[in-house]
């Protein structure tokens, strides 16, 4: 399978997915990286590894601005099967959601539907979790719809929130699980082990 990874930040999830693909654990390759922040860690890593980078969105004032349809055309040129959001901070345009049904995933660093939506990104998520007094947190992987963090939940992992946690400490504990969970889920995705229950809930079929 061919994968497009969308990044805006450090790209540690992208890196762990890329490594899992090189090791043959994921039966797929990262064919292209899409970013709204050309200088970010994720796009630098893609450059180092020789993976093509597409910038989206370009500033709409520029004559070279990329429309959602231009992006779809580029992704089709790369024959992409799945789109993986890994720390991509922009809302995915509805045209893209419609062009790739049941094929776009996002990872979010809280147990959705709690602590999700616009404004919940980066350390803000972990600060809010700690302030709420919740005893558990963890990453969620979900299919992407036209809103922030509301698509169907596919997988979650739980980590404890410790009494003395700083947002940074909690973020690190969650991120560690993110790397493992995303690889596991994309492994299943590429092996066509996602099944959809009649009520629209996606499930992962265990290997073997
Ligand atoms: C992760 O915590 C992810 O859940 C969130 O943004 C962060 C990205 O980290 N959506 P990285 O860029 O993969 O290191």
TrEMBL record:
Any GO MF annotation of the entry: phosphoribosylglycinamide formyltransferase activity
Chemical reaction(s) catalysed: N(1)-(5-phospho-beta-D-ribosyl)glycinamide + (6R)-10-formyltetrahydrofolate = N(2)-formyl-N(1)-(5-phospho-beta-D-ribosyl)glycinamide + (6S)-5,6,7,8-tetrahydrofolate + H(+)
Coiled-coil residue windows: none
EC code: 2.1.2.2
Span of domain Formyl transferase N-terminal: 1-186
Keyword Protein biosynthesis: no
Protein's cellular compartments: Plastid, Chloroplast
GO CC term (a single one): cytoplasm
Biological process, per Gene Ontology: 'de novo' IMP biosynthetic process
Pathway the protein takes part in: Purine metabolism; IMP biosynthesis via de novo pathway; N(2)-formyl-N(1)-(5-phospho-D-ribosyl)glycinamide from N(1)-(5-phospho-D-ribosyl)glycinamide (10-formyl THF route): step 1/1
UniProt keyword annotation of Chloroplast present: yes
Enzyme superclass (EC): transferase
Family under the similarity heading: Belongs to the GART family.
Protein name: Phosphoribosylglycinamide formyltransferase, chloroplastic
Source organism (scientific name): Amborella trichopoda
Taxonomic lineage from the root: Eukaryota, Viridiplantae, Streptophyta, Embryophyta, Tracheophyta
Residues of the full protein shown: 32 to 239 of 245
């Amino acid at each position: 399978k061919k994968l497009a990874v969308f990044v805006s930040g450090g790209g540690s999830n992208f890196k762990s997915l890329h490594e899992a693909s090189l090791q043959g654990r994921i039966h797929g390759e990262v064919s292209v990286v899409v970013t709204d922040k050309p200088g970010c860690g994720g796009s630098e890593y893609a450059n180092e590894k020789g993976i093509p980078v597409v910038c989206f969105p370009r500033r709409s004032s520029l004559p070279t601005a990329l429309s959602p349809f231009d992006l779809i055309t580029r992704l089709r040129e790369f024959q992409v099967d799945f789109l993986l959001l890994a720390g991509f901070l922009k809302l995915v345009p509805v045209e893209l959601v419609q062009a790739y049904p049941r094929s776009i995933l996002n990872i979010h660093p809280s147990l959705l539907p709690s602590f999700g939506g616009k404004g919940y990104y980066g350390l803000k998520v972990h600060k809010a979790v700690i302030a709420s007094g919740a005893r558990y947190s963890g990453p969620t992987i979900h299919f992407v719809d036209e809103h922030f963090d509301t698509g169907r939940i596919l997988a979650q992992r739980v980590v404890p929130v410790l009494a003395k946690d700083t947002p940074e400490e909690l973020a690190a504990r969650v991120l560690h699980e993110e790397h493992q969970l995303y690889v596991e889920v994309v492994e299943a995705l590429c092996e066509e082990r996602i099944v959809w229950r009649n009520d629209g809930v996606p499930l992962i079929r265990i290997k073997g």
